[in-house]
Amino acid sequence: MKTILFLHDTSLTTPRGAELTIKELILLGEKKGYTVQLDYLNDLSESKKRISNADLCVVNSTSRCRYELPLLEFLLEATTPYIKLEYDYNFCIRRNILCTVDRNVRRCCNPDKFHVYRRLFGNAALNVFQSPKHYQAHYDFYGEAIAQHLIMPPTVTTSLLQPSEEKEDKVIPFFGDLNFLKGGHEYVTYAETHPDTQFKVYGRQRLRREMPSNISFHDPIPNEEVLKILGKTKQFICKPVWPEPSGRLAAEAFLSGCEMIANDRVGTFSFDFYPDDPKGAITAMEAAPHEFWQGVENILSEVIPKKAAKLKKVLVYKSYGGLGDIFFAIPGIYKLAEVSEELHFAVAPRLVDFFSKYLSIPVVNEEVVRQQESDYDHIYELGNYPAFRGYDLPHALKYPTHKKVNQHAIQHYIDTLSKLHPDMDNQLVRYPYFKTTSKSENPYFVVHHGAGFLLKIWPTEKYAQLVEQLLDQYPNLHCKIIKGPDDPDIEAHFTKKWSRVTMITGGMLDVGEAMAGALFHIGNDAGITHVAGGFNVPSVGIYGPTGPGSWGSFAEHNELIWGKKGTCNIRCNYDVILNCEHKICLNSITVARVKEAVYKVLSKAYPEISDTIVANPQVTTEFTKKDCLLRLGDQELLLEYHNEQMRDDIENLLQNRIAEVSNSADIHSVIDVLLQQGVLYEIPSFKK
After folding, report:
1. Class of domain 610-684 (CATH, top level)
2. Tens of pLDDT along 354-368?
């Protein structure tokens, strides 16, 4: 006898549609001879044991479970097959996707939960949704990850329906708490405009609004009583604010013969049987529980799981956006290539040679290939994230997670492409490494002081100061400065002519050659910084009016400096940036702050060759005969000297005279503490 385990976070005594459906499914399963267990998700270890011992799990709602994500991660790693039976929009922390109907709601999803649910749907033997509208909303987010699905109409107990030919036209009921999401305001407004009609609410008042005298409140009643009242009701109002997955109550009202005053956000009304085929609706609802258990039987009898066929010949365009946006799309394109028999990436003519040299997938000229589109089975246009030009480009893909999931642009590209195939993994597990070269006999770092939008650049004179300080500190290093035709003249700000400075003024092939052998890179919020990310060059990115959240450097080791944070609270857009006179977000960033970021990156990127200790250039010191007060941001640290030798050692440490520091046990303990506090950094000297 097969054991079926239902996972659900709410007691089945709760009189809601989900719980009523689960009760009916369990009863039918037991009649069919299955051993059905119910886990209310109160103990993670017990839940794990039950999952491991079950023949199949039915995952219902888990969002109220205090250990939801560990539970789902365990389920995804377990060998027990499962069905995901969805009642809401549980990937969203609000569970109601208000973001799709209210533009003011944004970033409402927890990225970790959003992506766990993508895997949950993608790995399920079957996904069950409450209506075509409910399914479509999930498809918009997850695409082919939910390809294996069943749409199940609400499991209304049709035998208890009591439609009457005599209808009460002066009473309109409301069942449940009168709240915002369920359309409470629409109900009250309708009551205010129909003072001769009585409006009876069988639940509590949950609106911050004065109630008209023709609305009365009553205790909740059981479903049998609800059906009895609906049978005699002429009109029923159902205008929810959120996209209602099903609307069991709306279905009961429709089948009871009520005239529906509704909007387009009720899932039940997206079935073909609405509004003209109540008999067809009853047939579908009576069959729904049996179809569910037929799905269970099919899963249990399946020996070899079916694997989706690869996409055939695929063409991907990236026709809009800057250079950095192309690099952000590459991880997703690599993943799409893994589920495609053949994939070509189309880029602008000037970029063909560069990407052909460094990408591990075929690159084509977009102007040429547009005349050859008939040779491809699938064509996808990535346009730009976010879609600044809308989706008017041919073959354009939409970015459903824009404004909904707070994450890097790279992940939005991956999420969008992952909709195209059920086996495409949407986890960013590696960086889009390009081919790098062995380090040069003349080791060097790269600086790009410009940007396509010059109002986003850190002052050029500060770049010059930084370069000179680094060249003084690293006498064995050279510096390659990438200088585009419109970039500022940095050489004019140098205090002398440097033989160890080379200007890279050629095209992208020259830029790529420079990046492929670089030790580290420093640059603005510009495409070249993302070229560095493509080669996984340890990077420092300097950001001003535009924050690094979605467009930050993506090298494995990077530090992002955002001058706006804590300095300026004006929200920037293009017009604000053009008319900003002080540019304080960029001008306030000191050379010491950028140098500190360089130290952080080097200490993380090259721990195996870090052989020298330097003081954080942001630290200020106050020396006395007995102690030393250190200040770093809001942090203060007082070091008391044990003896004169310790005093000399600490002063030498903080003034970068490391060769004069003794080898005493006391100073080694102090160094360990100061390294932990970020007062000191251990970095490579890059000696030959």
Report:
1. alpha beta
2. 999 999 999 999 999
